[in-house]
UniProtKB/TrEMBL annotation:
Keyword Transferase: yes
Protein name: PLP-dependent transferase
UniProt-recorded Gene Ontology molecular function terms: cystathionine gamma-lyase activity; pyridoxal phosphate binding; transferase activity
Record PANTHER family: CYSTATHIONINE GAMMA-LYASE-RELATED, TRANS-SULFURATION ENZYME FAMILY MEMBER
Provenance organism: Streptomyces muensis
Family label: Belongs to the trans-sulfuration enzymes family.
Record's keyword annotation contains Cytoplasm: no
Gene3D superfamilies named among the record's database cross-references: Aspartate Aminotransferase, domain 1, Type I PLP-dependent aspartate aminotransferase-like (Major domain)
Length: 403
């Protein structure tokens, strides 16, 4: 069974938690919908008390007790989303940022502030994550390895091990529990953007940090940009200090939209995953497709390599939108080698399995037959019987047969 059929939080099913987490106090306030607090600053007549709260934040990064102080220190609406996401991921805390890249930057800055600038990472990662590490823009040094080489790649100054599973864009998966074991005392950062806590909760497998581009499935409607790190309270305090100092805060309206998006996350992921599994099955059997990548845990993402020109396929869609990003209610398709992973060195990109004929599709909530009709038209004429190559089955999910 898929993770979304099994996952429970400590006390409630994930679907229930998705609806109620971050909203537990509303009824007591006589409210039904969460309020949006747009204030940037807040009045206080107790400057001595404010001084003590600022001192406490500077020491530990703990959220100040009492009323808010200033928007860069924290916001009540954003805090609701953070509380909810932490509950869904099964962590003590979560810290939200203006984008997924701002969130990853904050993690790297926390470790660098401790003199731990070396990162061990497994490709593929999202293209901009790869670039941030490789370019050394934050003074970090990266060692790229496969999962089996993580333990050997660790150094005394290693501050982080980073993996993405399923990975962007090939949907390659790693054994998070095994990787976490090989990390020893070094924190494992797992990018869980593609899976979401509906399909897997990396903290349960030993990851100390769980990263999301919340722009994607957590928001779910293509109208909000955000990032979030779910983690223990100690690391969250350091992340809040970095967020305060660098200003990568999440706008309250975005926090509101994300909290609203979480309430339908399990339903959206379940529905889109069922459609994706069926499309993956059809693409695997299609002679115009060379290879299909679909994760064993399921999900709404499909990657596939075509025999023909991938650019022609992109140009041929009508219902599906040719665009970057993913996780929205509508289906999107893009050519990673041209866009999302263009910034990665070509040899590194191909070495990580991102071929020039690879297409990545984020399946939405449309009817499967309408999506298939659009794909069928975009892929062009089928070869005559006996001509061409049959698709190679790769990572075809057992789930596909079950749906």
């Amino acid at each position: 069974m898929h993770g979304y059929d099994e996952v429970r939080t400590a006390s409630r099913a994930l679907a229930t938690e998705a609806v109620h987490a971050g909203r537990d106090d509303l009824a007591r306030q006589g409210l039904h919908a969460p309020p949006i607090d747009l204030s940037t600053t807040y009045p206080s007549y107790d400057s001595r008390g404010e001084a003590a709260r600022i001192d406490a934040f500077a020491t530990t990064g703990a959220e100040p007790d009492g009323p808010p102080v200033y928007g860069r220190l924290g916001n009540p609406t954003v805090a609701r989303f953070e509380t909810a996401l932490a509950r869904l991921e099964g962590t003590e805390a979560a810290v939200a940022f203006a984008s997924g890249m701002a969130a990853l930057t904050a993690v790297l800055l926390v470790r660098a502030s401790m003199g731990l600038r070396h990162v061990v990472a497994v490709r593929p990662l999202y293209g901009c994550s790869d670039h941030l590490l490789t370019a050394g823009l934050l003074g970090s040094e990266v060692t790229w390895t496969d999962p089996a080489g993580i333990a050997e790649a660790l150094r005394p100054d290693t501050g982080l091990v980073m993996v993405e599973s399923p990975a962007n864009p090939t949907l390659a998966e790693v054994d998070l529990r095994a990787v976490a074991h090989d990390c020893g005392s070094v924190p494992l950062l797992a990018d869980n953007t593609f899976a979401t806590p509906v399909l897997q909760r990396p903290a349960e497998h030993g990851a100390r940090l769980v990263l999301h581009s919340a722009t994607k499935y957590l928001g779910g409607h293509g109208d909000v940009m955000a990032g979030v790190v779910a983690c223990d309270e100690e690391f969250a305090g350091r992340l809040r200090q970095i967020r305060f100092a660098t200003g990568g805060v999440l706008h309250p309206l975005a926090g509101y939209l994300l909290l609203r998006g979480l309430s339908t996350l399990p339903v959206r992921v379940r529905a889109a995953s069922e459609t994706a599994a069926e499309l993956a099955r059809r693409l695997t059997a299609d002679p115009r497709v060379a290879r299909v990548h679909y994760p064993r845990i399921g999900g709404a993402m499909i990657a596939f390599e075509v025999h023909g020109d991938p650019h022609e396929a992109i140009a041929g869609v009508r219902l599906i939108t040719p665009a970057v990003s993913l996780g929205s209610v509508d289906t999107l398709i893009q050519h990673p080698a041209s866009i999302s992973h263009r910034i990665v060195d070509a040899d590194d990109r191909r070495g990580a399995g991102v071929s020039d004929r690879l297409l990545r599709m984020s399946v939405g909530l449309e009817d499967v037959e309408d999506l298939w009709a659009d794909l069928d038209e975009a892929l062009g004429a089928r070869p005559e019987r006996g001509a061409g190559n049959r698709a190679t089955r790769h990572n075809e999910p057992a789930a596909a047969a079950r749906h």
